[in-house]
Amino acid sequence: MPISGLANPQVSRFCWQYLQLESAPELPDGEVLRDEEAQEAIYKRLFADDAIALPPPRRYQLRIFKELIARVESAILNWDQHGISDNLMAVLSDLLSQPLPAEATAAQQRCYVTYYLSRLQTEPSAPDAQIGLLESRLLISASGTTGLRTWEAALHLGQYLCANPSLVKNKRILELGTGTGYLAVLCAKYLGADHVIASDGSDEVVNKLLDSFFLNGLQESDKVSAAGLKWGRALEGTDEHAWNGGRKMDMVLGADITYDVSVIPALVGTLEELAGLFPGVSILIAATERNRATFESFLNVCEKRGFALIHESFPVTPRTEQTGPFYNDESPIHICQLRM
């Protein structure tokens, strides 16, 4: 007998991939989908009134929902024994009745994305460990920045920190190239950081970080703040105080910030200055190896500047074994610890 309803891992996997706006979320097997309890579980988790606080865009909802209904229909072998949930059919009717934005318009709009933190979900009955963000799903937004979506290296570094929470607990952290603020939110909300400065060189990205904080209940928290920081420029405080008021930094984080050879000298220059300001600071960089030469350029510049590098052993989990968040397993993602 299949496990049906809310307890079915295939149902949970589909729901979390759907909320993460995966382009092709994995639908449960036909044996599961024709089960009434499984259909109702999907309805209650994704489509019932007030089921989710941050719903996906309607174009995405409609496309995935059509695929879901088609899969249910093809799975039913005996219509006297099984059928399609009335609730699911009502959702389909509602989605079809509402006008959709033009595809070009929808592509430029930011949309809600929810990431499930499976490594932090220790009890099934506990509230879901998740991070909700507003993202542009384009590789590069209309404004020209790549910082309005969450990249694989941030998700992978987040998994590493979830597996090693003592690295973060009670620490003061600076994140470089924060983008959507995924790692900053993770550290501040779930991993017990004392304070996280989420920094970026794009003013637009920094301004939108307030949305990320609000969506995760951190809008009035003293555990996280946003700041503009351009690599290669001297870190300066006021006449009365050193940078960041002279407060100590225990850790520097950076994910997917080594993608361009041209920015690496400035990036490493900033890391060097931070290491000088905060002796003993721990620096963790996660880099997706899209181009081996680019990654090696980063390593070479670090070594020339006097950094000792330790490569952490934390391979990407195969896609078929991921339980959330979900990300590409085709390219290696390196996690490097740097120390002066």
Automatic annotation (TrEMBL):
GO MF: S-adenosylmethionine-dependent methyltransferase activity
Signal peptide: none
InterPro entries xrefs: Methyltransf_16 (IPR019410), SAM-dependent_MTases_sf (IPR029063)
Example of a GO cellular component annotation carried by this entry: cytoplasm
Domain of life: Eukaryota
PANTHER family: HEPATOCELLULAR CARCINOMA-ASSOCIATED ANTIGEN, PROTEIN-LYSINE N-METHYLTRANSFERASE EEF2KMT
The name this protein goes by in its record: Protein-lysine N-methyltransferase EFM3
Taxon lineage: Eukaryota, Fungi, Dikarya, Ascomycota, Pezizomycotina
